[in-house]
Amino acid sequence: MDDSKFVYRFGKTTDGNRSYKELLGGKGANLAEMCNIGIPVPPGFTISTKTCKKTVDAGMQWPEGLADQVKEGVAHIEEEMGMKLGDKKNPLLLSVRSGAAVSMPGMMDTILNLGINDQVVEAIIQKTGNERFAYDSYRRFIDMFGDVVMGVSHEHFEEAITALKNEVEVVEDTDLTADQLKVLTDRYKAIYRKHTGHMFPEDPMEQLKFAINAVFKSWNSGRAIKYREISGITGLIGTAVNVQAMVFGNMSSECATGVCFTRNPSSGVHELYGEFLINAQGEDVVAGIRTPEPISEMEKIMPEMYDELYDYTRQLEAHYKNMQDIEFTVQEGKLFILQTRNGKRTGTAAVKIAVDLVHEGVLTTKDAISNLVNAEHIDQLLHPQFENGNVDKSDLLGKGLPASPGAAVGRVVFDSKRAEKAAEKGEMVILVRIETSPEDVGGMSSAEGILTSRGGMTSHAAVVARGWGKPCVAGCSDIIINYKTKSFTNGVTTIKEGDWISIDGTRGLIIKGQKKMRPPKLSEEYVTFMRWVAKFETMGVRANAETPEDTQLARSLGAKGVGLARTEHMFFKDDRVTAVRKMIISESEEDRREVLKSLLPYQKEDFIGIFDNMKGLPVTVRLLDPPLHEFLPSEEEEIERVAEQLDITVEQFKIKIEALKEFNPMLGHRGCRLGITYPEITEMQTRAILEAAIELKGRGVEAIPEIMIPLVGSVQEFESQREVIERTAEEVFNELNDSIPFKIGTMIEVPRAALVADEIARKADFFSFGTNDLTQMTLGYSRDDATKFIPYYLEHGLLSADPFQTIDQNGVGQLVRMGTELGHAGNPDLKVGICGEHGGDPASIEFCYELGMDYVSCSPYRVPIAHLSIAKAAIKAEEKRLLETV
Amino acid sequence: MDDSKFVYRFGKTTDGNRSYKELLGGKGANLAEMCNIGIPVPPGFTISTKTCKKTVDAGMQWPEGLADQVKEGVAHIEEEMGMKLGDKKNPLLLSVRSGAAVSMPGMMDTILNLGINDQVVEAIIQKTGNERFAYDSYRRFIDMFGDVVMGVSHEHFEEAITALKNEVEVVEDTDLTADQLKVLTDRYKAIYRKHTGHMFPEDPMEQLKFAINAVFKSWNSGRAIKYREISGITGLIGTAVNVQAMVFGNMSSECATGVCFTRNPSSGVHELYGEFLINAQGEDVVAGIRTPEPISEMEKIMPEMYDELYDYTRQLEAHYKNMQDIEFTVQEGKLFILQTRNGKRTGTAAVKIAVDLVHEGVLTTKDAISNLVNAEHIDQLLHPQFENGNVDKSDLLGKGLPASPGAAVGRVVFDSKRAEKAAEKGEMVILVRIETSPEDVGGMSSAEGILTSRGGMTSHAAVVARGWGKPCVAGCSDIIINYKTKSFTNGVTTIKEGDWISIDGTRGLIIKGQKKMRPPKLSEEYVTFMRWVAKFETMGVRANAETPEDTQLARSLGAKGVGLARTEHMFFKDDRVTAVRKMIISESEEDRREVLKSLLPYQKEDFIGIFDNMKGLPVTVRLLDPPLHEFLPSEEEEIERVAEQLDITVEQFKIKIEALKEFNPMLGHRGCRLGITYPEITEMQTRAILEAAIELKGRGVEAIPEIMIPLVGSVQEFESQREVIERTAEEVFNELNDSIPFKIGTMIEVPRAALVADEIARKADFFSFGTNDLTQMTLGYSRDDATKFIPYYLEHGLLSADPFQTIDQNGVGQLVRMGTELGHAGNPDLKVGICGEHGGDPASIEFCYELGMDYVSCSPYRVPIAHLSIAKAAIKAEEKRLLETV
User: Fold this and answer.
1) What sign does the CA torsion over A651, A656, A657, A658 have?
2) Is the pTM of this model over 0.80?
3) Of A147, A674, B614, B651, which one's alpha carbon is 20 to 30 angstroms from that of B535?
4) Closest approach of chain A CAs to the CA of B497, in angstroms?
5) For residue B600, what are the contacts with CB-CB under 8 A and spacing of at least 6?
6) Which of B752, B782, B808 is facing A667, going by the closest CB pair?
7) pLDDT tens digits, residue range B211-248?
8) How far apart are CA A475 and CA A402, in angstroms?
């Protein structure tokens, strides 16, 4: 790559193509690509992402040669357009837009109509005979330039236009006359001068330089960083800058601008889907200021333009082999395509489009799996829906656009910061805003769902929510939101902050109160797609589940066993916790044994349920893990109540509670340390597991128990517990005069266990990496406390991802690798899996795949995602092998 | 080694020698050795430690051939003694004693007078004409056999003899006549029968088999395990059994028995030191039942015997090149040596004896360092003494034997269990017992000092206390102890449980209240010895210290710098903690900066103090480490008081305290995570360090600061803090127009840091392994909570040592090795040290030495121990190299 080339042209002469995405950003690369395949794109040029980095790194000093190349780029546009920047007869106007290698909707700043000044505005009037258009463009430019480039708040300009409309007594912006807009332009200039201390710059090349710098700077704006953080976007060096000839959708009613998808991004149905506005500029559609018309209306109003557009959309989809999200403008009867990109879509749509494109012969199943459907799509599909579709009229608060499907229930909040805070506390909220802006992404990400009263299907709220698979009802004009009183009303019912509502993003409904939810129905396409995925499955997927419901669900979603059944969950159930507490306060082994005897039938019953649901498949049962104090109450009242239940005095009970308290419970008396110091607990649990399995055997049901010892750090610990389990097994088998095969293995979750994995493996049948705790201990991050610094770390680049979501390959991953390799060295027959949260995270699954693990285990709803991630990893590995053999 | 050889003879024919220690135990090997060099030892044989293990492993089944070899062994003794076991004319009696490879005083069981039965007792009467002696031996044998072999409590026998003495109205055992002892023998047999359900075994070979098995079993008795645990004795396979012809110190007043040391074990003075009893059996001296005479009296009473003994002691010391602890018996004018071993000694004695033996030409300095002085000896020497040697008469409670030197202060407890519990809570206690027994070792270990009212200089309490370097006053007959009322009295003053006393083990004083202590004066021999040690020092020793007192002390004890100055200790001081708290409750960076400004002069002053004390030597300053909530009060009253100081409401303060609370503070918002999220703290501390150093430079004092960043887990964290430090340094240097060189390094204490040490090392000047935290995280043991299971683990062999005392080489050690190697790979100039508790632990220091670390850092009092440990490691390494080149 030529390091001194900063500017890449497109138009009739084009320097790039779509493979230049890293360098030119997605938008720039696609503009070049479209030019190459003959799509009518206004000419322009792209300044590369590298240039952005270079400039930012140099403290906004342009690298040598950039100024000249920008001039040449402008000359290129001037030549192709036959117009000149700043010309007094035929002036060229430019748009300046950002565009990184990964799409970030609404995140980066855009400037339109660049090149207007007091002379140019006259020239536009001369040329178009449209004084109104000229001044409308001018005042918009001052507003955008002031806001985006100079940091003059858009509000000041809004106030001015509102004041003017009041003065002249009109309602819509479009009602303002040319003269009035001219007055407005002057007022805007005054605002600009007041807030910047400078005159508005008249020199178009100076305007361009400022604008380019503003785009560069916006790369590191707070909201851009926040979006990258939330979306897990890392490794990019900067944004490209696209400078392009302006075309106008707002010159007259022969003009229009719009956005469309080649397929329905909600349902995936094969239809042209989108919205447009007559006599408007592009931002008007996206910003949700005017509610646009559906694209189908365009067929009636501008049939020729519609047909032409339709043909181009077909061509683009076929070319990109993916559903496209296209921006277009009609300027006085001429259609321009301003942008194309792979369209964001819902999970339902993603799967349907993938399956349809395969059936249409456009894609192979491998392509479909690798490129068209990702984990978030599948995740969305598995989102719950409302149990009962019917809504009582009295509960229905309003109807809006079904902007992002799925059901959500939460308490109303009107403020993004508040939404974030509530979510941190584990509260479920629905973010309700008149419209959303990039400043809201934090709150949107934290909310269960989003409701707006303004904006269309392609408004900010809708696009972002769909991208994240979060239910959203947009543009609901049935309600009026009042930020001051923190409430919204439909005229009949008023909902205040903190009240519960439910939203149905699939149908656009807003419902009072908490509606019950149920698991989703899965489409035919989903089944087809997952059948394809199954063909590439070369690693097992199990579920973390311990209730009959969860194990059933896991199996129905394709789990090939249970990788982690947490027995303590059974201890917490109301009828048992008293017995557990009795055991805890027992002073002697004898007393403990007595109480444990009473717990045995419960545990056995639980295991029978799990084994029965998982018949024929292995079930890994983890022995008691949490410290005992977790079973004791902490609230004063509760202590009194429980003390009575346990028949001891409150004082005695408090002494016991105090004695069990720990400074760092995470590193305390838990896991196998309990089983070792109280072997009678391990005995009871082993007995329950094996008695259950044998009982099922009697009924002809095959149970395959695997007993897992938690928190092992040394082979001595493992052996000590293995001995107890084997001794108990022998007792049970003798008593029942029957036996079943079973395995004994361990969690690898203490760093030391990974370091001495060979020793442990010699005695163990299987390992399961408990990467939650392993991450806590290897990084020294208490999961409960690290929220105090992890967000800061992510924001400031000290972490590239939350290590509790995606495995820290460099650190924790080294221990997992070491543990796996040493484990196999110690015992070649060792089965190895993972059962932390990471077992359901695509990047972590790929890592486990590369390590050659036997299985991953994750929560039931993540099972299909794990299947997909494995298929993707397998295809990737296959392709790599092919490349290597070539 | 012949695997079928179980029995090794000694006497005129001897199979072993002292190099057989592993196989024959220390006692057995030395008995063989003494026979080899012509010392008069009663003949006998030793059953090997291997045989013990084999038998125990086989569930007390004797291996094939053992029974025959034991018979042959008995025949060997019979031949050399000209007597026969069970013979009705000239019966042989035997002693059966345990003896492992490492001496464990009083731990293992012993049976004397074996071979007596109703016929044999008659034969003894016939032969000796001493009926009293015969029955006294018989009844002692029944008592011991019943107690040790069959588990019939000694108390039952004690009750019987006390009852009889009351009946016949005598006080001393020796006052009982032969007839009375005969009656007692019958009563003992009845007791035996009642508690065992069997007749007392008449067959001497059967008695022998029982006795041998009892010794085997005693290897795994609770108290033996406990002693090994406390003394850190591991890797032994079992005990040997020594079967030896009985000789009698209690046949008549021509008989005696005693214990002596070749040098004074308290002071090291070259003199025969010990005690003896006329007409007594060996156990009487050690058990403290009768208070024995000093050995110097023997010179008067039995001059010939004394001279003979003296010659043998000289011979033995020269032979073993070490001070010997010798047991002897005089039977009717004939001297027998029953045992010799290296004598336990105080630290003062160890150093003096080592230096004297070098000066006498017996030892080289290398031998002296490697074999004669260990870490515990040096530790003892450094024990504090009372500041003022004078004691007010009114405070002096009594005077006893100066059984183990040093001063101790604590609250009185009368029960070992209670002493253990109190020590767990961090309380200082003095264990006060009439006499101690092996059951007390736990409590003795936990106590600051030990006081007994009965027993001599070689009583259990004295021997054990001296071994551990714990102050002990023994046999203080000035006081009367009453366990029931939990008090002791000297007739004037009564001291209750919980009252403070002070004991002076060097002078044998018991003092009321808490006497002030001061650092010890170090002897000339100590200085000489440490000069020798310094010659072998090939790794640096620094101190963990941050007060002027500690840094001064450290330097005077030979520290070559400070390896860890904990800046937070300075924050806790009373006048500063309010400012620190103000900083913590600050809501903005601005407010925090304001408060930090007020802390700067304090920190600077502290650093000036440390740097000045350490002039010319490096000082590693660790930046703020603990979570901020540690600086906030937790008690209600204190919260109220502090809230007032801080001028906020109690409610606001409580909210702040609540917000800062952490579930696992150990893994929370602390270390560099604080410095990263509040860079202004790092800035202030850097500024204080560098301003202090430059100020001293102006005074001509060389300060060498090394700034250490705590809790780093990634290179990103390190770089981020390094950047803040370097930026601040530049500011300070510019402001003061001067500069000094300084280093920036990090603690390696998070497991991840060791895993990515190469990355970090590329940016760091030094590493210091913080093995306290590294152990907590690698093992997943919270130091504060692990007391709940570590003792159990040690007792049950799940841990061989407390990993917080001695580094877990297999686990944590792997990370230390990895961190060191990767660190040097990333930066060949990297300085590497250790600053956890392990920096003062001999085994851990040896490990660090082998890894090639640059220095260890430990608490000031451990500095000389570190020097010694390094010298030992260096000598060991040199010897290994020599062996390899040969």
Assistant:
1) positive
2) no
3) B614
4) 23
5) B684, B687, B688, B691
6) B782
7) 999 999 888 887 787 777 766 777 788 999 999 999 98
8) 9
